[in-house]
Amino acid sequence: MGQYSAPLRDMQFVLHELLDVEGTLKTLPPHAEIDAETINQVIEEAGKFCSEVIFPLNQVGDREGCKYEGNGVVTTPSGFREAYQQYVEAGWPALGCDPAYGGQGLPVLVNNAVYEMLNSANQAWTMYPGLSHGAYECLHAHGTDEQKKLYLEKLVSGVWTGTMCLTEPHCGTDLGILRTKAEPDANGSYRLTGTKIFISSGEHDMAENILHLVLARLPDAPAGTKGISLFIVPKFIPDANGAVGERNGIACGSIEHKMGIHGNATCVMNLDGARGWLVGEPNKGLNAMFVMMNAARLGVGMQGLGLTEVAYQNSVTYAKERLQMRALTGPKAPDKPADPIIVHPDVRRMLLTQRAYAEGGRAFSYWIATQIDIELSHPDEAARKEAADLVALLTPVVKAFLTDNAFIATNEALQVYGGHGYIAEWGMEQYVRDARINMIYEGTNTIQSLDLLGRKVLGDMGAKLKKFGKLVQDFIEEEGTNEAMQEFVNPLADLGEKVTKLTMEIGMKAMQNQDEAGAAAVPYLRVVGHLVFAYFWARMAKIALEKSASGDAFYVAKLATARFYFARLLPETAMQIRAARSGSASLMALDADLF
Amino acid sequence: MGQYSAPLRDMQFVLHELLDVEGTLKTLPPHAEIDAETINQVIEEAGKFCSEVIFPLNQVGDREGCKYEGNGVVTTPSGFREAYQQYVEAGWPALGCDPAYGGQGLPVLVNNAVYEMLNSANQAWTMYPGLSHGAYECLHAHGTDEQKKLYLEKLVSGVWTGTMCLTEPHCGTDLGILRTKAEPDANGSYRLTGTKIFISSGEHDMAENILHLVLARLPDAPAGTKGISLFIVPKFIPDANGAVGERNGIACGSIEHKMGIHGNATCVMNLDGARGWLVGEPNKGLNAMFVMMNAARLGVGMQGLGLTEVAYQNSVTYAKERLQMRALTGPKAPDKPADPIIVHPDVRRMLLTQRAYAEGGRAFSYWIATQIDIELSHPDEAARKEAADLVALLTPVVKAFLTDNAFIATNEALQVYGGHGYIAEWGMEQYVRDARINMIYEGTNTIQSLDLLGRKVLGDMGAKLKKFGKLVQDFIEEEGTNEAMQEFVNPLADLGEKVTKLTMEIGMKAMQNQDEAGAAAVPYLRVVGHLVFAYFWARMAKIALEKSASGDAFYVAKLATARFYFARLLPETAMQIRAARSGSASLMALDADLF
Q: Hey, how many other C-beta atoms are within 10 angstroms of the C-beta on A321?
């Protein structure tokens, strides 16, 4: 039950009308030849694949879940394996990968847009190729030439998949205390021993081999995060030609029963003298893994966006069809026994909340993806640095803000369905359950907030934040005399000033007491998220204002959604700024024993 | 896994120190003899029963769920039936019931406090006796003497259970369009035909008979809500002595697979010429059912409170035990590999959010229960009317505000556990899933908001709201010169003024356009909820200020939680007031086709 069709028109609006990605890509040598039409074609094809192949497996995957068959064997839900074969045969894993290893070399931007759709269609399924792509990026950045030669083509073609193995039973956030050991053996490789938990896609029946990227400690490693090294530990050890060989000593011991993403195997992985090969330098494993983590954080943001979009599509359909009560202002469908519930103001509030978060999230995350492409490929170092700073600043915001919003949005979608929303058959409650993990993994949203405020903003005295502020300021000045834009520019300017003040205030307080940053971080991230959304919504409103005069329904709706965003969602900042300013005293006063 | 122990100390604080219920009960003839000690004993006993018998079945119930065995038969999870037998044998169903029918005649207040604990221990299980009690109240208020004689003792003893059958596939909120038919037969009874859905506790193996209270239409009934009558339709038709006889034509056709409350059977009930007896007058069924609905709405509020409390208890324990990272201000447990996560400000924010919502909800809901006792039993009509007005005004607030808060709280509890919160074994994700239904059933929280703003506030030009405002005003004036109380009284007074202004503003706008009320209702309810909480938190702070000087940890913690509430949770009103004032235009502008 349910439906998903790729929001192609809105994706094209963001790509071409809002971001002019063709113009940006022309400045990047590896992508200079890519035109808008090619991008549209790729997205359209991917959208079809998502609707036709992946989406129909979403509820099946939730209902059946993965099964641990004993002896290290995990089976995925009906159809998952076959869909993955189709995905591989169509060459989708190669989309954003390096042509040197068989990739298609398309920009991160296009890959990201495809991932939005994959996640709308089936988040649990998408985590198999998603983690493989993360492993690809990590090895591409940190592997030796030999490692790249041996492994990358397998990941690019998709015949092998990948994982990241960080968490252990006693540590998730705090990797500094991890215990898995890696001891050098006589062959230049290492023997790894320990237990990893919460390993997404850790074992399955979809590919012939699985490459685990594992954090572990060398015998002489210093304590803490500076003593962690990264290893590649294949399920089957390949020979020099990449043929699958001997079974390695890493095996799934059990899978978790979880709130959602039932179709993805969340594995306990036992390493029992498993052979591994060092990736990057000894004791620098956490740095190498952070390449993967940052990509993964953007990826989690795309999971949030994907769920927001599909929840919206379904709840709109229901709201137009379900007849219940009359409009407060009198019957709107007098020929029917009741009006469709979309006549009710609060139903519209719930729908528009989802829509504004979906469209705002799309604009923001696609823009971030273009910044990553600039960071990776721009010929000018200053331009690369500028983009890298914006990406570093806003990666935690994409992750936390989009996943918080997705939880809000999927819950509103469920609520639109009333009692039916609570029933599994309708599919809406699955979106809520799936969305819930995105606020936790790849660093909880609290950790993202601390990263934003502590490291990214206060860590450089606001320098990176000022770079984003400059974009906002430029837009405000550009539109300063545009009468029609004042309804958007004024609240944007107001919020910009408030963020500046708030940041300085917290910075001053945190210099006296670090807990002040810890106390303010979560509401601070929500405020910055809204600043970003207000900026993109104002920019989208500008285009819609210019083009809606024609009566084109797309722009009329875009403008209405922008107005809704400013009227109804931006006011959250009034609460969050007060909360962020309230300081740490009310949190820290109570002795731990008195809780 | 997990834990629950009744929060006896805080319950006693609310009952005796905050509300002086002994003093109130002395003014009510049926309860004049009940002293504090008796109440404490009942609660302590019930708390033991909840921790020892009901709570251990909570995860089992979720995991196993109810099973539809075909042919109308439903089995409940392991242990549910036996626990219910114990519950019946101990006489708990009789607690708040009329002594004329075997009840113990205790006040609503005590019954409510017991339900808080039952819901903390196991919401799905508690819905079996909970709905029976609702059926008892409805029949007690509207049944004929003969019906009371035949049925009430069975409900009071608990050997039979009850349900309410309202919803049909095409109507939930909009009962005016319901289709189930009732045709008079030759025996003075009726034959009912139709399909009811979402019938909680509709079929099970826990009791020898089930009494269904069913809404249906008589042949000559006018259209809409004025043509609905109420019938009692027993599963087995009893003889005049109450012995179970012939199987009636009402049967469960299937049960729903739901997001949560798996241990409660949510049934499709098919009526195929089932014999029923009219309760109350023809075509006045909705009024009669509203007795049950209002009790049920308070009951749902208690479900929210129960889940908030148990989620808090568990997440506090985890936060004290889980070691992860060092405090931002330096190690607090230098002898351990990391600090317990309760040192982190944002973990404390998550814990205190739950705590403030639990304790605030307890104060509010116990107070409402005393008002119901006054409404039912006070010798003075004016006092009864005054209490009835407060209850009518605040019933939608108890229902919606406490269940919204419970969803926030259970989600914060899950988040405290990090990845473990997402894993079924730990039990936290079940609380989130169970809590989600409470925002939907017995009238969605949007419906509660429309009831509050449209019917209860604007419907009498704010007269009932002023009655609550008077309590707030009196307290503010009393404490006006108490220096130590200004930190609580000032924001309370400020919010009180804002609510008055906001109400007038919306009222004026709604006179021009009814959609203005629909657009403002949901944020308006949140604002009123906070006014109520701010009032009770200020009153609790006053007691804590007076008594915390002694160093008694209970009052120290109470005061700190009050300060947290004002610093961190009350600021939500800044957002909600702006949202409520933003009007209907941003919601209604977009043509339904353009969604």
A: 10
Same domain, A108 and A168: no
Nearest chain B residue (CA) to A340: B592
pLDDT in tens, B140-196: 999 999 999 999 999 999 999 999 999 999 999 999 999 999 999 999 999 999 999
Residue in B170, B349, B579 closest to A587 by CB: B349
Distance from CA of A432 to the nearest CA of B (A): 9
CATH of the domain at A23: 1.10.540.10
As a whole number of angstroms, the distance between CA B23 and CA B248 comes to 48
**What contacts B508, CB < 8 A, 6 or more positions away?**
none
Contacts of A212 (CB under 8 A, 6+ apart): A162, A163, A164, A165, A199, A202, A232, A233, A234, A235, A250, A269
* Number of cross-chain residue pairs from A and B with Cβ atoms under 8 Å apart: 273
Contact A571 B582 (CB under 8 A): yes
Instruction: Note down the domain range covering A75.
Output: 8-142
* Nearest residue on chain A to B551, alpha-carbon basis: A594
**Cβ proximity of A44 and A111 under 8 Å:** no
Instruction: Please indicate, yes or no, if residue A151 is contained in any of the structural domains.
Output: no
C-alpha angle A288-A290-A292 in degrees, rounded to nearest 5 = 90
Identify the CA nearest to B397 among candidates B298, B287, B292. B298
| A27, burial (CB in 10 Å: exposed 0-12, middle 13-18, buried 19+) | middle
Q: Alpha-carbon distance B523 to B545, whole Å?
A: 32
Q: What is the pLDDT of residues A201-257, one digit of tens each?
A: 999 999 999 999 999 999 999 999 999 999 999 999 999 999 999 999 999 999 999
Q: Same domain, yes or no, for B132 and B180?
A: no
Would you state the pLDDT for residue B194?
Answer: 98
**Which SS3 state, helix, strand or coil, does residue A271 take?**
strand
Q: Are residues B505 and B558 in the same domain?
A: yes
Task: With CA atoms as reference, report the closest residue to B50 among B104, B3, B107.
Answer: B3
The catalytic residue among A442, A483, A516, A546 is: A442
Q: Among A111, A142, A173, where does a domain finish? A: A142
- Under DSSP, the state recorded for B222 is P
Tokens of B377: 């039993």
- What does the pLDDT look like over A33-45, one tens digit per residue? 999 999 999 999 9
End-to-end alpha carbon distance in chain A: 45
Nearest CA in chain B to A563: B586
Residues 6+ apart with CB under 8 A from B231: B182, B190, B192, B213, B214, B215, B216, B276, B277, B278, B279, B285
Q: Chain A closest CA to B263's CA: distance in Å?
A: 14
Beta bridge partners of A169: none
Same domain, A200 and A99: no
Which residues, in sequence order, are bridge partners of residue A165?
A: A214
Of the residues B203, B375, B442, B516, which is catalytic?
B442
Low-confidence ranges of chain B (pLDDT < 70): none
Is B442 one of the annotated active-site residues of the chain? yes
What's the pLDDT tens digit per position in A399-416? 999 999 999 999 999 999
- Read off the tokens for B527: 């604002």
In angstroms, the CA A529 to CA A404 distance is 10
pLDDT 10s digits, A39-81:
999 999 999 999 999 999 999 999 999 999 999 999 999 999 9
In the block, which residue shows the tokens 């917290």? A506
- Selection from A62, A259, A267 nearest residue A161 by Cα: A267
